[in-house]
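Archive entry: two folds, one per protein. Generate the first.
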Amino acid sequence: QVQLVESGGGLVQAGGSLRLSCAASGRTFSYYSMAWFRQAPGKEREFVAAINWSGRSADYADYVKGRFTISRDDAENTVYLQMNSLKAEDTAVYYCAAKYGKSLRVAVADYEYNYWGQGTQVTVSS
């Protein structure tokens, strides 16, 4: 089992940057694929980015591709989401998620992830 704690959210102007962090408990972090999802008010939760257990494969939603970068540091049990060129439509609560297993495939569906953090608010002012 793993527990996830997100941090790094806040208020930023459009065009600015933020880096979200997700710290995971447990000794087998390197066995987990990790992902970021987000949920805006009145909208369903949507996929943002994911990285597989090895860190060699990642995938991004089209609406963040080229602006966001997901990475992981297994020594620190942490996954990051670097967000650049932020837009007002990026405003949402961002959730970190974990999926156990050494799959080569990058999972992008929320139902595939077993563990979730509490979320961190990102607000982009236009």
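Generate the second and append.
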Amino acid sequence: QVQLVESGGGFVQAGGSLRLSCAASGGTLNSYVMGWFRQASGKEREFVAAINRSGDSTYSAASVKGRFTISRDNAKSTVYLQMNILKPEDTAVYYCAAAWAPSSTGYYTTGARYDYWGQGTRVTVSS
């Protein structure tokens, strides 16, 4: 069972940048497809970005495409979300998620495919 701990959230002005990190323990990260999701106050959780096990294939939601980049370092058991040109509508709690998929070469965009979740890190973007 893998444990996930997010960090890097905070308060930033619109147009700024943040890098979120997700540190994994208790499992071999390269057996997991990884994803980032977010949930704004009063809204449902939404998909942000996902990355396959090797890190050579990624997918981002249309709302963040061109601004956010997901990456992973399996040797460091860490997944990252680089967020640039942040907008007030990016304000949310961001969650890292892991899907056990030792044979998969792709990524997943639905939360139901993920087995483990972190506790979340809050990002607040002011206008």
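Annotation attached to the second fold: DSSP finds no helices and eleven strands in the chain. The longest strand covers residues 92-100.
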